[in-house]
Every structure is written in structure tokens, then in C-alpha cells.
Design brief:
One of its GO terms (biological process) is L-methylmalonyl-CoA metabolic process. This protein is of the alpha+beta class. Helices cover 20% and strands 38% of the residues. A hairpin with a 7-residue loop joins strand 9 and strand 10.
Amino acid sequence: MAKAGGLAGLGEVMQLAFVPDDFDAAISYWTEVMGVGPFFLIENIHLDGMKYKGQATEATFTLALAYWGDIQIELIRPENDAPSIYSDDYAATEGVHHVCILTDDIADARKTCEAQGAEVVIEGKFGASEVIYVDPGRGTGHLVEILQQDNDGPDLFAMIKQAGENWDGSEPVRTLG
């Protein structure tokens, strides 16, 4: 099978991300109605060197991660009003906000995005992981996150996925350090 071109050629979608109006209600919905969980919270994240549309920003956010089979579900709560993809032109609530693709080469991913006319709207680092969010030209709710994980990233995602495999509904929300 030939490798797909465009952004799809970077890899498979591994995550669906949402920015709900009511973060706690969204966690309840996903855990109680959908049976997805447990969710792991990472609070008050600010990416190192974070830029929104090329300008430094102090945006801070909290996220909750869980797995529904092989798909990661991410719920995001903005913690301030600093310019970011969670406010301004890219604010979206209740629907899918973005999808995530993992890459081994963020520089190559940037080149592919540039060739496709996909604008980098936010970028930064979380530890040794580097991330960009690109707008491929459809606006709100259609962003693509491209993440090059550090060596610990796959272990974290594997731990979260494993916790959901035989989850019995207990401790639906857990906090990561």
C-alpha cells in the first residue's frame, strides 16, 4: 500500500481532542456514559517557548487523557485568557477541536505542513517533546496537532492506555505530577 500524501502521510490520527464548555461535565460524560477512562489530569501546562501565531504567549491549560481502544481522548481546560488555540480564532467547544498525529521528525513534519500550506498556529516544548498545531485551511475545530515525543512520552501513553484496558469505573479521574 502506498504511503498517503499531504498531512495524512505524517502518520495516523491517534487522538481526538475537545475543549468543552464544562470540563467536569465532559469528564463525567466520557466516564459514565461512554465508559471511557480513567482520565489522567496534567494541570497548569505552559509549553516552553510557546508561541501563538509567531508571538510568545503565556497560555496555560489543563488536560485530561484517557483511551477509547486505540484512540486517545483529550479534554482541555484553558486556565487563562492568553492568546492561544483555545481562545481567539481557534476557540471551539463541544465538537472536536483537533486531532493528533505522532511523528519521529518534527522538522520533516514542518516541511510537509509548509508544502501543503498548513500554517503553524501554536508551537512549543513539553519537556523534551516538541509539538506544533497547524491549520490546514479550514479554521475552527480543524487543527492538527503534530507531536514528536521524548523518550518518556510513549511510556506515559502506554501507562494511560493500560489503565483503561480493564478499568472497573473506580477512580475516574487521576492526577499526574
